[in-house]
Amino acid sequence: MPWELTVGIAALVVGVVALVVALVAVRRNRRRTAATPAAGRRAATSPTGPRIAVVVNPSKENTDRIVDVARRVCTEAALPEPRFYETTVDDPGTGQARAAVSEGADIVVAAGGDGTVRAVAEALAGTDTPMGIIPAGTGNLLARNLDIPLADVGEAMAVVIGGRDRRIDVGRARITPVPGDGTPDDAAADPALPRGASRDDDAPGPAHLFLVIAGLGFDAAMVADTDDQLKARMGWVAYFLAGARHLHGRRMKAQIALDDETPVTARLRTFLVGNCGRLPGGITLLPDAVMDDGILDVAAIDTRGGLAGWAQLFGEVVAQGMGVQNEAKIKIGRIDHVRAVRVRIDVDGGEQAQVDGDVLGKASSLESWVEPGALVVRAPA
């Protein structure tokens, strides 16, 4: 037999043997894999970590993007896929947030505007479950004060996943509606509490939660008159355009009581009770407000002299945000700051009231108090 043929046969035999060995190895590997318990395989590959629920307002234009980005960020972080709960007209987020917690969520994210944030906070206040925020509104008040990114959903989700837990105060406000004003019943205006329920036993009626500012007077009238379509096109600037219609409105006659002090009478344009003070447009209305000090910061604002008074007032607001105080003895526009745990203001004839940009209606009185450290929020690390 020629040596070439001998070499060829030998090579063929070696190849067949190698193929047989490979097939045997594959079959053994398959048997080994089949013998591994299914639960064990899932444990090795399933994402682990905090379970995130996102309460999303479907009326916002970027709802689909929020859902897509939240899923992507959780996948990239090897976290379980988030669960999504949509708000409704009848329930702006409180019921959804409670459902998320009952279904095992470790973090509940409010994805929407200030109303959605308020509603989710109502469900989580008094618990240890942290609230995250994906800003998707016009004011985004709490997000601004927590330095949460406003324009990038991915960056906001990064805070949700990698941020720190911070316990902050919660404000409560109860109003006395003006009879016959046509204002919806208070309990209906705040679905977070049942009709007639209250978190404070001193008086009946629901206590509306706020995280940034509650107000009575000019600020609330401005919010009430802001056109929703204009707000959607122009953002927070729409509030200022609405406010221009009230620059020449009447000054309200008010009686103000702080804690246990003797009530005082004053003429005002607006009365604000705040947990923190940063507003859109770089405005800091309450420069000394701290959201975890257990105290409310109060601003009584007045102006006379028409547009000149408002111009001076605006200048004073801008200056105080930069740490500069107007020491002039005579002012036609002024802001008086005080601090208290409990506040009450009564006004003749009634004025519009608001909490964090949500209008409560025309009220003859507003009573407010603080719940120290009631809410855990996820803040930038």
UniProtKB/TrEMBL annotation:
* Record SUPFAM superfamilies: NAD kinase/diacylglycerol kinase-like (SSF111331)
Give the Pfam families listed for this entry. Answer: DAGK_cat (PF00781), YegS_C (PF19279)
What are the names of the required cofactors? Mg(2+)
Q: Name one GO molecular function term.
A: kinase activity
Show the PROSITE patterns listed in the entry.
Answer: DAGK
Membrane-spanning residues: 6-26
Q: Which UniProt keywords apply?
A: ATP-binding, Kinase, Lipid biosynthesis, Lipid metabolism, Membrane, Nucleotide-binding, Phospholipid biosynthesis, Phospholipid metabolism, Transferase, Transmembrane, Transmembrane helix
Q: Where is this region: Disordered?
A: 174-202
UniProt key word Ubl conjugation: no
Which InterPro entries does the record cross-reference, listed alphabetically? ATP-NAD_kinase_N (IPR017438), Diacylglycerol_kinase_cat_dom (IPR001206), Lipid_Phosphate_FormReg (IPR050187), NAD/diacylglycerol_kinase_sf (IPR016064), YegS/DAGK_C (IPR045540)
Q: Does the keyword tRNA processing apply?
A: no
* Domain called DAGKc: residue spans: 47-177
Family according to the record: Belongs to the diacylglycerol/lipid kinase family.
Q: Which PANTHER family match?
A: SPHINGOSINE KINASE (PTHR12358), SPHINGOSINE KINASE RELATED PROTEIN (PTHR12358:SF54)
From the Swiss-Prot or TrEMBL record, give the protein name. Answer: Diacylglycerol kinase family enzyme
Organism of origin is Isoptericola halotolerans
